[in-house]
Amino acid sequence: VTYYKKAFDNGEPFEAVILDTSLRGDLSVEETMERLRQTHPRVKVVASTSTSGDPIMEKLKKLGFRAVLSKPYRSAQLGEVLKKVLNETG
Questions:
Q1: Which of 2, 30, 49, 50 is such that its CA lies 20 to 30 A from the CA of 56?
Q2: What is the 3 state secondary structure string of the chain?
Q3: To 10 degrees, the CA torsion angle through 6, 3, 37, 29?
Q4: Model's pTM, two decimal places?
């Protein structure tokens, strides 16, 4: 969140953020998304998760993730998802 805000404040915002939902730190996934949205309401965030299944995927979409990548994934899959997300409007 700190790097995203710093880049945004310097006029060089990231075009997308990839968030590993399995990492544990000071903030929950929900808090992280809220902080990112405080910086830019239309931030494009992709979830990288080791957990799969419809309920998890649905929860992440409701939190505002533009896409979800289930680990393990290949670089080609990452590229496809980023291309799709970056081409979305809004």
A1: 2
A2: CHHHHHHHHCCCCCCCEEEECCCCCCCCHHHHHHHHHHHCCCCCEEEEECCCCHHHHHHHHHCCCCEEEECCCCHHHHHHHHHHHHHCCC
A3: -160
A4: 0.87
Q: What domains sit in the chain, N to C, each tagged with a CATH number?
A: 2-78 (3.40.50.2300)
pLDDT tens readout for residues 26-76: 889 999 999 999 999 999 999 999 887 778 888 888 999 999 999 999 999
Whether the ω angle into residue 41 lies within 30 degrees of 0, i.e. cis, is no
